[in-house]
Amino acid sequence: MASLLLPPTATSSTLKHNNQILKLKPNNNAHATCNVFLSNSNHYRFNSAKCHALFDDVAKGLLESSSVGVDQFQRVTEGLSDMQRWVFLVFGGLTWIYLTARPGVLVGAIDAYLLAPLQLGLDNLSGRRNLKRSDFVVGDKLGEGSFGVVYSGVLLPKNVDVDVLQKRGRAKTTQLDAKSKDKVILKKVKVGIQGAEEFGDYEEWFNYRLSRAAPETCADFLGTFVADQTNSQFTKGGKWLVWKFEGDRTLADYMKDRNFPSNLESVMFGRVLQGVDSSKRNALIIKQIMRQIITSLRKIHDTGIVHRDVKPANLVVTKRGQIKLIDFGAATDLRIGKNYVPNRTLLDPDYCPPELYVLPEETPSPPPEPIAAFLSPLNSPDLFDMYSAGIVLLQMAIPSLRSPAALKNFNLELKTCGYDMKKWRDYTRLRPDLQILDSESSRGWDLATKLVSERGSLRRGRLSAAAALRHPYFLLGGDQAAAVLSKLNLNRK
Ligand SMILES: Nc1ncnc2c1ncn2[C@@H]1O[C@H](COP(=O)(O)OP(=O)(O)OP(=O)(O)O)[C@@H](O)[C@H]1O
């Protein structure tokens, strides 16, 4: 039987048993009797034998209620000296802290080796992944990266075959009168280009991973198919990735317009801001966009993923005013070290932080995947994206930084100033209009200086997504209130 040792010198012991706080107190006459005070203020006196039995009961109860783990721990630690037991405890504790610390190597491993295969099985059963080329009609080309070409397209209804449509001369998206829910985006991975196949595999992997972990942050991923080589529309075979069409324009498209940010007002806030001073409106629109970007980054960073290509062209604006991340070809998952070293051509130098790689430069380059995963909790890899988010904030708030040429000049100046925005402000010849950032006690400016900066060490330096959301810039949530109001109005109509 388990027994609780109360040394003869002990004056009292407090224990919790059956939801009662028991205070056991030996009497002055040593072991002859003891007093038991219950938390319901009852008080009992026991003789020595009863007292001993009571201690035994309490000890047994404690051991039983403290889960099987205690039992196992006892078995494991049986035969160990006190010193060895302490070493065992400290080592176990540190391992646990390491595995569960951000970005969460343990949960990452569970996701990669358990949940991913499970999702694959379920998707196969439900037919979600059984896409084939004849399910789609491919439309206009929307973009071309180093490893893929992106097209608009339409997902055909189940009973319609693209070959039949082609024979009838109706195999163009414009001829299909597609409902918006059937519109898709297709990315064809280039064939015969070194690294392209790997890029396609990574992008597929990250999209499935995010559809499990943070689906609201990115475009809805429908799956992939491999085209045969015979069909003219899908020349040369190769892998295709398919997403739901999320919106006509990216943030970059909106920013090219002279009316930015007013051109986003109705999609983000409906008519809620009518009557508000125009500079305040602009500031609120920009704040809402930044809030959404950083909230999404916090979510993906919590899953251990760093996007590494955050820029206006990779942020799609949905018709409900949501900002969604696309293009995960350069992303990395630090919990399992996936795609740790991206192809450098995938990184956009205009939005890249000075440290370039996600781990600090001191890390021997390039560490193999498991080592990258092992090191990741010790670093702050997410800060890579926060720099890019800071550049997006600057471009939105300062009109003269929006063109690619101006951004390049800005980056040259910033480099000369050692990535110190305060120095840049005195140094620049770009005559920036800082009105939006300087409004509301310069909170926007302060946030920008804490994002567009050197990475720093041990979280002293650039702000993480979670810390940025706690910055005073976001505390006065006028933008959030307006967004909620506008949604309420929409729902009422
Ligand atoms: N889910 C989506 N919904 C709407 N539009 C999308 C979606 N995905 C991609 N696009 C459009 O396709 C364009 C190219 O997509 P993406 O950035 O993923 O491809 P890419 O091959 O990396 O091209 P690039 O190198 O030009 O960025 C985007 O800029 C956007 O306009």
Automatic annotation (TrEMBL):
Molecular function as annotated in GO: ATP binding; protein kinase activity
UniProt entry tagged with the keyword Metal-binding: no
Keywords assigned: Kinase, Transferase
Domain of life: Eukaryota
Protein kinase domain span: 136-474
PANTHER family per the UniProt record, alphabetical: SERINE/THREONINE-PROTEIN KINASE STN8, CHLOROPLASTIC-RELATED, SERINE_THREONINE-PROTEIN KINASE STN8, CHLOROPLASTIC
Name listed for the protein in its UniProt record: Serine/threonine-protein kinase STN8, chloroplastic isoform B
Organism of provenance: Glycine soja (Wild soybean)
